[in-house]
Amino acid sequence: MLKFGGTSVAGRPQWEVITSLVKARQTEGFRVLLVCSAVAGVTSRLDALADVPDSVEMRQEVMEIHRVLGRNLDVDDSLWLDQAERRVSRCLQDLAGNPGPRSRAALLAMGEWMSTTIGSLFLRQTLAADWVDVRDVLEVAPEKDLSPARRWLSAACSAGEDPCLAGLWSELNPVVITQGFIARTREGETALLGRGGSDTSAAILAGRLAAERLEIWTDVPGLFSADPRLIKEARLLIEVSYDEALEMAASGARVIHGQCIRAAAVTGTPVVIRDLNRRSVPGTRIGEGVSETAGIKTVTCQENMAVLLLQNLDMRHQVGFLAEVFGIFRRSGLSIDLVATSETTTTVAINCKANHLGQEELQALVTALGEKCKVKLFDNCVCVNLVGRGARTALSRIQQVMRHFEDRPLLMASQSANDLCFSLLVNAGDHEKLLQGAHRCLIPQGDRNPAGVFGASWTMIRRMS
Q: I need a surface site. Which of 381, 398, 401, 419 has the fewest CB within 10 A?
């Protein structure tokens, strides 16, 4: 199975590479399923359009991106454009009459619909290919106590093998193209799997079809020991286990979605992350049977975090205090990232972006919590994460880095129960030196590779390509 991100479906050169990859996999004896994202930038444009559904200019901009793509691929407008216009118009009418996450989800799904429709018409010029609507086979799992935004915009699907689906799709052409990111509710309406959910769609489908492997083709060569945009000497990770990759994704590594790793782990589907523009780089393999050498593999950061200090001097004698406090988060449909407790204070960290939590919603949460305890909010925080087996042992190696906090506040420290991550919460702006110092202390530099885990640095990869 091949999954392609937004930059990998954005133009003719990319679709020609996609075609060559499909043909190469067919030569190896595989049937091929392609799962594609919307063209890069389109989902954000559709999201902006959802706020002003009567904007003719913004609508035309989205449609023009796809007209240009279709014409560059020698795809006749008459084969897709009228239908796309009608579908977009219907979505915008629904938004104008019933604004909210339900209608927004239907509009945002149009990005994947258009990219795969145009792409399938291009593939059929040289391949026997079928287009399928992923909503025919992916149904979101019903969950209680989710906010409307999460129910429609960050839904989840169950993972596992599905022999019936494998049998059904085996009757199609040897190449099948479908959409990532989208699914349907039990009532047949469109729901989304969250930003980055195309990876998740691909992993779920790969598992249901018992695919040999899932190849995720994107615009980066794989997982790195840090974000290469922040640390140029970040090194490519050759292979990591499912649990390490999941911790990396949950801790801010943006290359792959955490739900994708969970879905792949359920069925034991190997995942390989590759760069469409650097196909000579082997990428990162995620799966079973990889090295389980202890040590930090990556240093990540999560921005847009909120830290809440919940103070209750009578907490020792108040039965059920934490249950009441966490019940407020549950009723608000919010997922808590980190928790630390002391004699009189509970510290909670939440990811505002992942929870679709704006300033208004955040203040409402503070007000609700304020009825149970005294609340102090730090609403512009960054979580620096040290990820790898035996994460607690990293502290002895970053003593010099910890001097960073002699004149800066450390809002929270948390160690994961599985000893795969140690997290430090700081104010935004205080994280960059901490990130760089921790990487320098914990990740082997140059060509050193004592555990056989680290590949070339980002600087070296750029020189080779």
A: 419
Architecture of domain 298-458: 2-Layer Sandwich (3.30)
Q: At 14, give phi and psi (nearest 5°).
A: -65, -40
Question: In angstroms, rounded to a whole number, what is the distance separating the alpha carbons of residues 348 and 411?
Answer: 10
Question: How far is CA 412 from each of CA 192, 357, 408, 417, rounded to the nearest angstrom?
Answer: 33, 20, 12, 16
Quote the CA–CA distance of 92 and 297 in Å, as a whole number: 45
- Domain residue spans in the chain? 2-219, 298-458
Contact yes or no for 274/215 (Cβ under 8 A)? yes
Say how many residues make up the chain.
Answer: 465
Report how far residue 250's alpha carbon sits from residue 248's, in angstroms, rounded to the nearest whole number.
5
Q: Over 80: is that where the pLDDT of 242 sits?
A: yes
3-state helix, strand, coil in the chain (%, to 5): 40, 25, 35
Q: What is the pLDDT of residues 86-143, one digit of tens each?
A: 999 999 999 999 899 999 999 999 999 999 999 999 999 999 999 999 999 999 987 7
Instruction: At 266, give phi and psi (nearest 5°).
Output: -60, -40
Q: Supply the CATH classification number for the domain 2-219.
A: 3.40.1160.10
Question: What is the sign, positive or negative, of the torsion defined by CA atoms of 339, 389, 247, 160?
Answer: negative
CA Rg value for the chain:
23
Distances (CA, A) of 360 to 102, 178, 367: 20, 37, 11
Q: What is the mean pLDDT of the chain?
A: 91
- What pLDDT, in 10s, does the model give residues 47-92? 999 999 999 999 999 999 999 999 999 999 999 999 999 999 999 9
Residue type, 252: G
**pTM for this model (two decimals):** 0.85
